[in-house]
Design goal:
Layout lengths: L7 H19 L10 H4 L3 E10 L10 H4 L2 E5 L3 E5 L5 E9 L4 E6 L6 E8 L3 E5 L5 E6 L1
Antiparallel strand pairs: 1-2, 1-8, 2-3, 3-4, 4-5, 5-6, 6-7, 7-8
Length: 140
């Protein structure tokens, strides 16, 4: 009796394995940009740096000060970024959900810092600069 290497059962099992791998791979939050209230919750939300990558996709080593940074986003359109050393920057932000961008304007400045929003869910926020560097934040 000759054993078939790819019997119908094995073909079906291989198909299910590939299908499950594809489903898991496509289940990522990348590209998912939900409503503006995900930025601030009911009143405000604190975001902490999870990971940073440069324009080539290489992970950037965070300093202690960078690891202690917090981005506070408020429902009224204000933000504050604090660092572990006690310093902070405050200003206003505008979020364009359709365009998937967010612009931060520090107090006393006319210059906006604009980022593409790659991911915005209740617990994840990924901002990408025009140069291609990305900052992945997690809700605290």
């Amino acid at each position: 009796m000759k054993t078939q290497l790819f019997s119908p059962f094995r073909q079906f099992a291989a198909f299910l394995l590939l299908l499950s791998l594809f489903t898991v791979a496509c289940g990522s939050d990348k590209g998912k940009v939900e409503g503006v209230n995900m930025l601030y919750g009911t009143d405000h939300k604190v975001w902490k740096t999870h990971k940073e990558v440069d324009a080539t996709g290489d992970k950037v080593k965070q300093t202690d000060a960078q690891e202690d940074q917090e981005l506070h986003i408020f429902a009224n359109g204000n933000y504050t970024m604090t660092n572990g050393g006690g310093g902070s920057v405050s200003g206003k932000y505008t979020f364009d959900q359709a365009g998937k961008t967010i612009a931060f304007t520090p107090e006393g400045s006319a210059t906006q810092n604009v980022f593409n929003v790659e991911t915005l869910t209740d617990d994840k926020l990924t901002l990408k600069s025009a140069a291609g560097a990305a900052l992945m934040l997690e809700a605290e």
